Every structure is written in C-alpha cells, then in structure tokens.
Amino acid sequence: MSLPPLATVEALTVRLGGEALAGADLARARAALDDVSALVRLEAGVDWVAPDAVTITAPAAVVAVVLAAALRGYRNPDGFQSESVGSYSYQYAQGSTSAYLSDAEIRIVKAAATGRARAYSIRTPPAYEWPTQPRAPWEAS
C-alpha cells in the first residue's frame, strides 16, 4: 500500500497562483508531491500517517518543505537552468531545477522527526560584576 502525500494538491495549487489544475498538470502535481513526500520520509525515517492510513500527521514545517520542493519540481520538470528565445532570456535561480531537498530542508525535516531543534545556550558573565576579578583594596566588599 502506498502512503498518501504529505501535502495536498490544493495547497500546491495555492502556491502556483490559485488556478485549478486538470489533466496532465494535475497528474504532474500529484507526482511531484508523491516524489518529495518519499524523499522527506526517507530523510526523516517517519511516515507521518495516522493509523487510519489517510490522515497526515506531519508538522506544518514538514508540509512547508514538501510544498517548496514539489513546487520546484512542478515548475521545472525538465531541470532547465535557462532558456532564450530571440532577445528574451530567463535563468532559474541556482539549485531550483528539480524536486530535491536542500540542506536547510533536510535539517528542518530531521529536527521535526526527532523533536529536537539544534538550539543551544551560551553562558555570559553577569552584567555588573565579574566574579573572578579580584577587588582593589579600597573597594568595599
């Protein structure tokens, strides 16, 4: 049994400008969502599907990653980097030529899967007194 995509075609459609997809465009959108969902699940080691096998339980950050990567793949299925017709020329941003997960997206997915963000704290000295600094003899204790 195949798992459902981690984001909906409707959510992808909104990011494409809101026009309803049909026919081959709808099939491409579904395929992009399926492909990216598989990549996300591979990185996370989590399927994010409820026991009913229909409800998606992925955090919003994971859904956003799926939609961003699927959008890249949908808009540029052939992986073109640039095109020119006469005096018109267009170039895609570097790294936006296919459905893939960027390093930042992989970090987001892994943090969501483990429930641990990569945060830490740094101890700073007190603002008014440095405890290891010796006091001068004329200073009061």
Describe the structure.
This protein has 141 residues and is mainly α. It is 40% helix and 6% strand. It contains 4 helices and 2 strands. It has a two-stranded antiparallel sheet. β1 (82-85) and β2 (88-91) form a beta hairpin. α2 (23-44) crosses α3 (60-75). It is elongated. The model has no long low-confidence stretch (mean pLDDT 84).
Please write out the topology.
Blueprint: H1 9-15, H2 23-44, H3 60-75, E1 82-85, E2 88-91, H4 103-114
Antiparallel strand pairs: 1-2
Helix pairs in contact: 2-3
- Report low-confidence residues grouped into runs of 5 or more: none
Q: Which strand order spans the largest sheet, edge to edge or round the barrel? A: 1-2
- What is the averaged pLDDT score? 84
SSE-based structural type: mainly alpha
Compressed to H and E, one letter per element, the order equals HHHEEH
Strands, total number: 2
**Anisotropy-based shape:** elongated
Q: What does the radius of gyration come to?
A: 24 Å
Major beta-sheet overview: 2 strands, antiparallel
Termini separation: 74 Å
**DSSP strand content:** 5-15%
Helix content: 40-55%
The DSSP helix count reads 4
